[in-house]
């Protein structure tokens, strides 16, 4: 199906990029690691690859595999687990372990919000791009669906605390989230917009 092909295409591209990063010891292009380019672009991009791979596997496993068993074994083979050089049927547990690992990495390495400057200071640049709070929210959702409610609550509480402290996210009048027509007019209720 298109969903299968699309998400594995994303996974393959993320794996290739993460392999370059790993082979280059986190700096394959010899950037000045104190520079804005490294801090605000390179490390963010690596974190976005982790997020995109996690999102893709999470989408695939919910469609093409049995649900995570809260109280039992999750060792049945489910969907392909790929890296650059190998592909094997991964267990439900192994896929969820990778999803959690990738989302934790993304959460720790994505910015709270994007730093906009010159080339990316355009309307809509942030739309569809994950930040720390998008990764935190998705991690909470993954934990919730795994039946790990205390872990899920901790992630959701962190998002709520950030939202209340910054005003970045908040509830709006019922119609307001749905009447935005320009990319730069992001509804306050929306943590992440995704167009498939």
For the termini, the CA-CA separation is 14 Å
Provide mean pLDDT, rounded: 87
Strand content: 5-15%
Helix content: 40-55%
Low-confidence stretches: none
Shape: globular
Number of strands: 2
Structure annotation, total helices: 5
What is the string of helix and strand elements?
A: HHEEHHH
Q: What summary fits the major beta sheet?
A: 2 strands, antiparallel
**Can you list the strand order of the major beta sheet?**
1-2
CA gyration radius, whole angstroms: 18 Å
- Backbone structural class: mainly alpha
Question: Could you characterize the architecture of this molecule?
Answer:
With 196 residues, the chain is mainly α. It contains five helices and two strands; from the N terminus they run H-H-E-E-H-H-H. It has helices at residues 2-23, 36-64, 92-109, 132-145, 149-166, and strands at residues 77-82, 87-91. A two-stranded antiparallel ribbon has the order 1-2. The two termini are 14 Å apart. 22% of the residues are buried.
Give a brief rundown of this model.
The chain is mostly helical and 196 residues long. It contains five helices and two strands, in the order ααββααα.
Main attributes?
52% helix, 196 residues, mainly alpha
Chart the SSEs and their pairings.
Layout (H helix, E strand, L loop, with lengths): L1 H22 L12 H29 L12 E6 L4 E5 H18 L22 H14 L3 H18 L30
Antiparallel strand pairs: 1-2
Helix pairs in contact: 1-2, 2-3, 3-4, 4-5
